[in-house]
Amino acid sequence: MPSTTRSTIAVDAPLATLINVFTVEPERQEALVDALSKATVELFVDMPGFVSANLHASLDGTAVVNYAQWESEDRFMTMLKDPRAQEHMAEIMKIAAKAEPRLTTVRAVHHA
Hints:
Elements: E1 16-23, H1 29-42, E2 50-57, E3 63-70, H2 73-81, H3 83-92, E4 98-104
Antiparallel strand pairs: 1-3, 1-4, 2-3
């Protein structure tokens, strides 16, 4: 991944964006963030098509949101077939109670 690549939220960005909302017990939220961050650094950043990942922890401790970008839906789908990614997802689901992944495109951006 080029060092100049950053998360881009723009209608014309030709990216596939994963928004995955994990439900988690508050006492396990930090462990989930750590596991997702570790997997991103150790696995996903070197996968073809990976652009960025951003982790958000809810203030009430019950959710973690992964906002990740891939060059294309095809690259994302290829990642899902990788046994290392499947192993990672199985480990994550030992921490999270539920995951709600959605692959999306940006349709509108507004600024003050």
